[in-house]
Amino acid sequence: MVRRIPTKRGGRSRLVPHVPLRPYQLTLIYILFGGIWIVFSDIALAQLLEKKDVFWVFQTFKGLIYVLVSAILVHWLALTAVRSVERRVLAEQLERSQRLLETVLANLGEVVMLVDPTRQKILQCNSTVVDMFGYQPDELLGRSTEVLHTDHEAYEQFSRDCEPALDRAGVFRIQYRMRHKDGRLIVTENTLLSMVGETGWRESVVSIIRDITQRKHAEEALRESEARYRLLAENTVDVIWAMDEQLRFTYINPAIYQLAGYPAQECIGKPFSAFSDPAEYPEIRDRLTAAMSVEGGQVGLVFEITLIHVSGEPIAVELHGKATLDEDGRVSGLQGIFIDIRNRLELEAQLRQSQKLEGMGRLAGGVAHEINNPLTAIGQYAELLKELAGDSAEVEHYSSEILRETQRIQTIVQNLLGFAREERTTKLEPISIQEVVDSAVPLIQTVMRHDAIELKWEISDGLPRVMCHCQQMQQVLINLLANARDAIVDARCEKQILIAARTTDKAGRTWVRLTVEDHGPGISAPVREHLFDPFFTTKPKGRGTGLGLWIVYNIVKQHGGEISVDSEPGRFTRFCIDLPIAS
Fold first, then answer.
1. Between 23-48 and 52-106, two packed helices, what is the crossing angle to 10 degrees?
2. Per-residue DSSP letter, 209
3. What predicted TM-score, i.e. pTM, was given to this entire model?
4. Alpha helices, DSSP H only, in 188-336?
5. For the purposes of burial, counting CB atoms within 10 Å of the CB of 348, is it exposed (0-12), middle (13-18) or buried (19 or more)?
6. pLDDT band at residue 45 under the 50/70/90 scheme
7. Who has the most CB within 10 Å: 248, 252, 329, 420?
8. Angle between helices 470-488 and 548-558 (to 10 degrees)
């Protein structure tokens, strides 16, 4: 039998075994009854038995009974003592377990409450409620759990949700907002366990409450950060990527579709070699592998490579990359971006071309000055020879040829001198492109009709005026029309030249674009690189000076405009001149 007696340790009680009689009491009772048995049994036998031989038989039988009774008594006493010791040991173990449980509950970091399932009253709770809810344990004992809920409706809904789960599985878990004593809300993770008694009825409910407010805030911050990163990564024009150590893509953003025509999901898991120029890939692989082998992976990479579009077209990009590290600080792969540099390379090529033309223009101007004086003397001597020729038709013929070629050279020299120097005196005026076209076309219309070439134009209505010199822009248009005529006059193609004008927006500004287009043999890429070089021509000897497009280029630049050419051999050639509108 076990009973609970109070101790001095904080009012708690401990379990000790309960024995009905003390040992010394049992000893006195044994002596008393043993003496009574011996004395009275001997007297009774002496009176009843007169024969000694019968007396000793009964005496022996009595002794055996005494020994048997004593043995039974000793066995009972020994069994009682063993059970008493076992109960004491069990009680001490139970008490240690209670102390350990109280220590664990006090330092658990989670609120543990014992709740009456019928009245929803708090029967017991640990001291963690002070830190989590601001209540002392004594303040909550006997109170309804509603005090910890945000409001009565939430309390009722919580009860409706947990009751079926406890009846069905005996466990109910939920993430739930609860209320601190000062009124602020706490995000908690609740686990309710149903304690069922021997009768099968739910005797109590253990509620374990963990404060996850900080964790939820961290998760929310992480989600917001990931959302911002995803918004940035999936909407930037640059291609953001990540690779593993085998140079397989583990992530790539949707910009790859705009750049190279591949859906992002199709790139995941594929090797980098599937998207790069096979001729370049060995060098790219070696550089990327070397970057991952550097201690700590802290060396960044920046170099130009060629990606292959899904159509097979090469794409010039700039690769920026850096090794990534895992939690242990070991290199786990690479991450970086691809930047489309096709426009940059085109602008750099245009800048180099412009610088080259500028230098050649200065050179041509210097040469023209040096040629001009001796050329004048040659012309004068030719005139003198012609006057002295007399009746010699041969001398007159040769002198006339010299004069004609001299005048041709003088025309070239004047063009060189005119465009090699900066045109500071040219006055630019706001003029309509329609006026330029209307004044230039009649000057070349007769030649076009003679060659059965149709001039077609598409000029948008209401075009803004541009700042230009009308005669110079006429010369630009006539030169372009003449080049288009020369390209198609002997070719088996559509004998038609298109003149078009419309507005276009570039770099936040509005421009007027003048276009001259033909459907002749086109211009190859190597030829396009030298189109605006002075003295460069593809025409037969004697049919061109190679200065026409160079002059056009300089006039357009002097007007603050831009000129470009687009051509596909065998299909078309299109010259575009962009002029800023008059403000």
1. 170
2. E
3. 0.43
4. 213-235, 255-260, 264-267, 281-293
5. exposed
6. low
7. 252
8. 150
